Protein 1
Amino acid sequence: MRKYILLLAAMGMMSGCYDLDQFPHDRLTSGTFWKTEDHAHQGIVAIYNTLLNENVFGAYYNNDALGEIAMDYNNWQMPSIIKGTYSDRDSFIKKKWQSAYEGIFRANLLLQNIDNVDMDKETKEIYKGEARFMRALYYFHLFDFYGGVPLYDETTVVSEEFVNMKKPRNTKEETLKFILDDLDAAVGVLPVKWESTEYGRATKGAAVALRGKVKLYAKDYIGAQADFEEIVIDPQGRGYGYGLIDNYPDLFTLKGDQSEEMIFSIQCVNGTNNDYGLPYCLRLGTRSAFEGGWNNCMPTDILADMYEYKDGRPFSWDEIYPGFSTDRAMQKRIFEATLSDDHKTVETYPADKDKIRSIYESRDPRLEQNLITPYSHILGANGRTPKDMEYVLAEGVNEANGFLRANQPTYFNYYWRKFVPEGDMDGKLENRENSPVDFPLIRYADVLLMLAECYNENGEQGKAVELINQVRQRKSTNMPKLNSGPDWLKAETKDEVFERIVHERAVELACEGHRFSDLKRWGLAKEKLNYEYDDILGKFIFKRVFIDRDYYFPIPAEEYDNNPNLGEQNPGW
């Protein structure tokens, strides 16, 4: 049985007498529910199921729109944050807080009651480890966005204390310690691997990797290095078996779901009564994706221009077209096409179309593996019918005529190829909101780059470069090694290696939701997140604003309304 966690949810939890997909409440007491191992299964599924919530991890890719490598001006969640006009009463700020705590309270509910379940002690300890891993994950998400938060553990019984849950905020240090204590406990009991029927449950490797990430965010580079080395080097011979797969694009299709690169991911399925997938088509796809998408999150030209030439040289349009970056009329002239009067064919392509295509094709292969670029083709869909689409930058394009069309055709941007299903996935895709492709929260390439960061901070630049080169030298990427000859590949000092890590995390992990958090923890957000943005044809879209207060979201005003004991609001709010 593939993808155990969510299949179990679909077949058991949602059809049973006790619906744990609802907020935990007093009808799920130890006297009525927590008796059998089936009940424990349903309890653990409810904790994992919160991962699918779009306010927590179910749309985690959209966090890149808070950074410089993606954007969301398309009226979903991010526009007010991007423009700096949001407040402590913004619905997104409130929902993220509440949804993460929902996952925490589900974990606490299991920890409160698992000892009442009729099963062996060792199995109970594993369930406790899973719950503590997940609780740590949700608390770390809160820490990342809000700093210190009120800590509620399994001693808090929501059904009895809901109206009296008025703890003050804990400090950032206390919150980090709580998270690390949970992960220490999880590492001690979780298995290195599960049986194939249990695939998707948290493992020892996932807990070690997350613990390393938490330490990295706390700037404990020695501690983080030790954890990441356990994953990469496996000095104790635990047999984790993680590694890079050869073909990068496979990671974001069904082929990558159970690969050795996935350390922890959101498990997805679809099908009749089994709609536990993620809305890649809807949120990331254009109108030319299956059933039509909204392209809420889109890659920026800032990201597109980060991808080097295949020989490792940095790329710049100004080198090819002098003055390009500041001349919007030139951008329009170079890229724009015109359609025939009936809009069914291209009347005039840009004079430099072939040159444009060669420019994109001469770059790091991950550029066109991740992004849809002008005048390239994709296998999209006209409604539900698979159809070849060309991305033509012209007014009047429509998917019915074989052209990529944005949800808001006023602008022409780059769009995601990554994660967006091709056609109908050979019949496997049943609706645009439930793609069966898993979403990686921790994968091996991410760990390699985090370990490289630790080595660099700890004065081992050579080791850091070796790990960066492993990512660059993936078989399908095959970018030249750093320090392999030309000056443009030089990375020897701490600052030079750090710049390479900043770059590599952007181009490798694009659309995986890490960028905004990376920029904040590096202290680079204010430097990189203040700019004016226009589309490929030079048309102004928005101004990105980031000030000091934005390093943390405000604690939602509603939480202060309900809990006057919370304490100080985040700085600047």
Protein 2
Amino acid sequence: MKTTVLGIRLNDYQRDKLQTIAEDNRVSEVEAVRILIDKLIEGRITIGNGVDLSGLRMVASKKGVTVQQLIDAVVEQLSGPTE
């Protein structure tokens, strides 16, 4: 298989986050980037046209719940009382 070497520039914040992600997943930084690229190719990550959950993450964090718990609570409120 032919391979290509790419050079990328990361700011300090990006590099720190990449290092943390790699360490948390017990992989090298290079492998973490390869995994991200594979997920992008598979369509599991979108660029530009995806859903931005940053606002929901911020509210969930302030409330001490997960994003999914926040979404579930909103859906429950919109659905009305359940039997």
Protein 3
Amino acid sequence: MPANETTVNQGGNGQFKTTVPKALAEANDLDGKTLKWITKSGSAFEVRIVEDSNG
């Protein structure tokens, strides 16, 4: 799988999970950040960094 793709899996509790590619997380300093997911269309969404919970 290319570095800019990831798989979404459904857990036993019904919640869907995915990982953030390491290069993307490091480039955007995502450790401890809160992300907001926004639907743009039926086949596209946007993710925004909205909060840094590390203080």
Protein 4
Amino acid sequence: MATTKMIKKVDGKEVVFDNSIIQDNHKVTVGVVYNTNKNRKDLVVYDTHSWSGDVTGAYPTVPYNDTGRYEVFIHQGLEGSKGGVVYADGTDSTARKWLVAFDTPNNKCYVEAGPIGPTDWNVVEVHLNKSEGYSNYTDPAFGGKAAARVHSLDDVTNRRLDVFFSY
């Protein structure tokens, strides 16, 4: 295990990651998730998938906030991170979901927004493989919006994934 702390600036704030959770030689993706949905509900994890690497700990619940507050997750792997998470604002038939998938070794991300329901990760991977470093989507029926961008954190191995969910 690494013995130092990883300190990264995220939107002008220092976020300290205890390197006891960062494995040696792993490439790290720092996911920064914002939730500004108009129904003012917290977003909870609905589904997850990892093709390469793993989330460290757990994906966080993302509280509603219109003042720029965010939650952070870490996904890491020897070859980098390729995974996805689906957030939802509830579990009943009127709930909405937001999806972000990322392939940071290839600087790709993909987003969706829409009604709650099962996730076909094979279809998501097809879309992710065709995507680029920026993705946005607006649900045509209900207006849920999702956007994401992958960029270098501070070197060529570590990446930052900015994710914005609104409605």
